[in-house]
């Protein structure tokens, strides 16, 4: 798929991957072998009818492709962009063995974008059931659950704590990976078609509690994600210039800080940025940092500066998607691997000036199966830095558990829920996505939302008891 | 959209607004705050609840025009709306009958201290209030504070109203007089005022609650931009606070963090003024 040149794209917030035109899409669709027992569908967490939609693309029948897609996936323009296809559908494609899988993700995106532009297959709802459902959180899990239940004819109300729906798709994933007009396009389309009520600015646990929701609704789904950032327990984390990836990405993405002062939220970034962590959020933070530096250098007529990723394991263990790590390197991010911060040092004004790190080596595998990084004695060194961004993973926000007796939590703060049905330990409450699993992927949250919706529907129809 | 139902100009730079927000008013309690975003381009700013009416479904805010967002908000009038209004956020003030308490409110901090003083009074406390501002124009709600206080002291820095002096002057006298046992002190206002109230009460070992207003984005624990250093480590003002033990707060770190975006705030104000100037001109010309 055509991409923006790394040199050019690292200075703008436009989408990196440019997408297929119809001719290229049809050409790629030709490669699909239309397997009798398709591995791709098995590899998809929501079981998209992949050979069927690809066949329709090949035949040039795009409305049919959309129809096939929407049997299982209501948000294809989003999934086509952010799913880790290499370990899901494409990983199971028979052609992988012969060299290169069919580019299922790119085709999915092509079909999704076609539908956003042409609206050939509006979602329709079954006759009203009279049942009322509250969905808490409007990220991938909540959205998927809401759409599936609304299609069954239930009256769905979504509660969002921020000023607009989308959750991590809006505040977390950057514009250059997932343009916000695509997210809002998908959400608005579904919400309009199905008459879903979206209540922004409602913090469940503060504005209204889970127990109160249960008085007003027949069933509740919690898809509140994992929004609470972690900081390392090292000296200096409260210095100016130290922030969580959540803060940085929210300033840039949700608040459009890269358009300051036309948008009022500033992003303060120095010339030497250290991002701590090796996951997708770390890659997003590093790549956003570089783009912000370019924007600010242009405004001030100075040099842009540099961005480091500091990760305690080696390249092989980097938890980010291969494509994201590759993109980051391509764009000139400096990787300090097998390195771990031990202290952030400030200047007299209380602002970050240096970071002290220690070199690591890989030891025995730990609980996660990955080699445990061990500090090398006497290897401490300092690097000049003026900004430090922690991208060390997130945990569920505890606010939703306020006034929600019976909703059990694990010691990691995640909600206890059945992985198949999504049922929590509290009657008429389901949960799915990061609030249950801890920070994971968009598509796994969508899968959980989908499975919970199926179980909720059965329960509401009286086909299943609690 | 949330409609502004009433606006009062308390001073050139201090405005009161009553905003329609049943979802916040239903559960709002003294000590909590809200997040306001004026329009699509706006930032999310935390504003403490000055009053609430659960029956009418309204929230009263009082704010001082110190940055671009509050200046912009100050130009809105009754009938206008704000795009986003979220809350109530943070923990409510713990209210019980402690005995005799002192409520200190400095500047725009008089607004959020009012519902706390009222709730403390209703709970049976003897409430001594001290309110202060730089000058007479910046003082407001003296009558409302008087109505919920057993004793009230009013100070201005320049002596233009009440006693000339700082908020800590009467506070120190009351503590030194030892006429009665002071169970607790609340302080809300600029960071520097809360710091000095805390320093004043420390030698007397009187528990002192401060309500911090730090830089925030979401207000729900997501960004962590509001972190404050306490004796026991970093806490989030939005979800762990906004009230903290004033004797445990690292004030120099807090004040340094509060000033971090000063240049950007200045740039935002200049940009907004320029934009507003152009807009006003265009409207004036369009009117001709």
Q: Which descriptor suits the 3D outline of chain B? A: globular
**Category by helix and strand content of chain A:** alpha/beta
Residues in helix, % of chain B: 25-40%
Instruction: Name the chain pair with the biggest interface and residue counts per chain.
Output: A-B, 43 and 45 residues
N→C terminal distance of chain B: 31 Å
Q: Runs of chain A with pLDDT <50, length 5+? A: none
Number of helices of chain A: 16
β-strand percent of chain B reads: 25-35%
Averaged pLDDT of chain B, please?
Answer: 94
Distance separating the two termini of chain A: 48 Å
TL;DR?
The complex is a heterodimer of chains A (466) and B (288). Chain A has 466 residues and is an alpha/beta fold. In chain A, 35% of the residues lie in helices and 16% in strands.
What can you see in these coordinates?
The complex is a heterodimer of chains A (466) and B (288). Chain A has 466 residues and is α/β, with parallel strands linked by helices. Chain A has a five-stranded parallel β-sheet with strand order 3-2-1-4-16, with helices on both faces. A five-stranded parallel β-sheet of chain A has the order 6-14-7-8-9. In chain A, strands 10, 11, 12 and 13 form a four-stranded antiparallel β-sheet that branches. In chain A, a hairpin with a 5-residue loop joins strand 10 and strand 11. In chain A, helix 6 packs antiparallel against helix 7, helix 8 packs parallel to helix 10 and helix 8 packs parallel to helix 16. Chain B is α/β, with parallel strands linked by helices. In chain B, helix 2 packs parallel to helix 9 and helix 5 runs parallel beside helix 6. The longest helix of chain B is centred in the last third of the chain and has 26 residues. Chain B starts with a strand and ends with a helix. Chains A and B meet through strand 5 and helix 12 of A and strand 7, strand 14, helix 8 and helix 9 of B.
């Amino acid at each position: 798929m055509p991409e923006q040149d790394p040199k050019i794209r690292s200075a703008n917030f436009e989408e990196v991957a440019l997408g297929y035109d119809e001719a290229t899409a049809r050409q790629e669709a030709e490669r699909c072998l239309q397997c009798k027992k398709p591995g791709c569908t098995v590899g998809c967490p929501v079981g998209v009818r992949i050979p069927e939609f690809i066949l329709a693309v090949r035949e040039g029948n795009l409305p049919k492709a959309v129809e096939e897609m929407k049997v299982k996936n209501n948000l294809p323009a989003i999934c086509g962009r952010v799913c880790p296809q290499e370990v899901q559908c494409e990983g199971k494609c028979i052609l992988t063995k012969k060299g290169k899988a069919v580019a299922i993700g790119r085709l999915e995106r092509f079909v999704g974008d076609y539908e956003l532009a042409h609206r050939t297959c509006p979602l329709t709802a079954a006759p009203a059931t009279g049942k009322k459902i509250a969905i808490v959180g409007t990220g991938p899990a909540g959205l998927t659950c809401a759409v599936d239940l609304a299609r069954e004819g239930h009256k769905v109300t979504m509660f969002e704590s921020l000023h607009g729906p989308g959750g991590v798709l809006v505040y977390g994933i950057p514009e250059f990976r997932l343009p916000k007009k695509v997210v809002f396009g998908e959400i608005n389309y579904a919400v309009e078609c199905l008459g879903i009520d979206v209540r922004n600015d409602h913090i469940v646990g503060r504005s209204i509690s889970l127990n109160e929701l249960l008085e007003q609704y027949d069933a509740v789904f919690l898809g509140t994600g994992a929004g609470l950032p972690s900081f390392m327990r090292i000296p200096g984390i409260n210095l100016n210039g130290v922030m969580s990836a959540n803060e940085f990405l929210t300033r840039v993405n949700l608040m459009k800080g890269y358009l300051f002062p036309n948008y009022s939220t500033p992003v303060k970034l120095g010339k030497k940025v250290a991002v701590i962590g090796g996951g997708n959020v770390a890659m997003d933070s590093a790549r956003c940092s570089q783009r912000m530096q370019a924007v600010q250098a242009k405004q001030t007529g100075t040099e842009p500066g540099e961005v480091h990723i500091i990760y305690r394991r080696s390249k092989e263990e980097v938890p980010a998607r291969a494509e994201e790590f590759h993109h980051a390197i391509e764009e000139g991010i400096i990787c300090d691997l097998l390195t771990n911060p031990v202290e952030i040092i400030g200047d007299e004004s209380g602002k970050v000036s240096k970071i002290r790190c220690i070199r690591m080596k890989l030891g025995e595998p730990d609980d996660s199966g990955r080699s445990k990084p061990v500090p090398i004695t006497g290897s401490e060194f300092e690097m000049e830095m003026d900004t430090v961004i922690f991208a060390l993973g997130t945990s569920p926000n505890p606010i939703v558990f306020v006034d929600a007796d019976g909703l059990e939590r694990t010691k990691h703060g995640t909600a206890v829920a059945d992985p198949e049905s999504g049922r929590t330990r509290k009657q008429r409450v389901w949960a799915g996505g990061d609030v249950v699993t801890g920070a994971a992927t968009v598509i796994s949250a969508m899968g959980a939302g989908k499975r919970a919706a199926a179980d909720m529907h059965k329960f509401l129809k009286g086909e299943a008891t609690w | 959209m949330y409609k502004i139902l009433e606006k009062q100009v308390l001073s050139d730079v201090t405005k009161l607004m009553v905003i329609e927000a049943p979802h916040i008013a239903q559960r709002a309690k003294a000590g909590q705050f809200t997040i306001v975003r004026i329009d699509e381009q706006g930032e999310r700013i935390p504003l403490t609840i000055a009053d609430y009416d659960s029956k009418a479904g309204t929230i009263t805010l009082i704010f001082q025009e110190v940055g671009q967002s509050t200046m912009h908000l100050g130009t809105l009038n009754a009938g206008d709306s704000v795009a986003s209004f979220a809350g109530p956020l943070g923990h409510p003030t713990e209210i019980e009958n402690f005995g005799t308490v002192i409520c200190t409110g400095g500047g725009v901090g008089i607004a959020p201290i009012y519902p706390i003083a009222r709730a403390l009074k209703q709970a049976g406390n003897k409430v001594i209030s001290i309110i202060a501002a730089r000058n007479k124009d910046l003082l407001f709600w003296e009558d409302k504070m008087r109505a919920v206080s057993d004793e009230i002291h009013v100070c201005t820095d320049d002596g233009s109203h009440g006693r000339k002096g700082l908020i800590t002057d009467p506070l120190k006298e009351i503590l030194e007089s030892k006429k009665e046992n002071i169970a607790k002190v609340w302080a809300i206002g600029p960071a520097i005022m809360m710091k000095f109230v805390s320093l004043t009460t420390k030698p007397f070992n009187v528990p002192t609650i401060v309500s911090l207003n730090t830089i925030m984005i979401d207000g729900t624990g997501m960004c962590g931009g509001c972190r404050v250093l306490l004796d026991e480590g970093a806490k989030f003002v939005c979800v762990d606070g906004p009230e903290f033990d004033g004797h445990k707060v690292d004030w120099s770190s807090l004040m340094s963090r509060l000033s971090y975006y000063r240049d950007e705030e200045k740039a935002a104000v200049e940009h907004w003024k320029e934009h507003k100037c152009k807009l006003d001109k265009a409207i004036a010309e369009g009117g001709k």
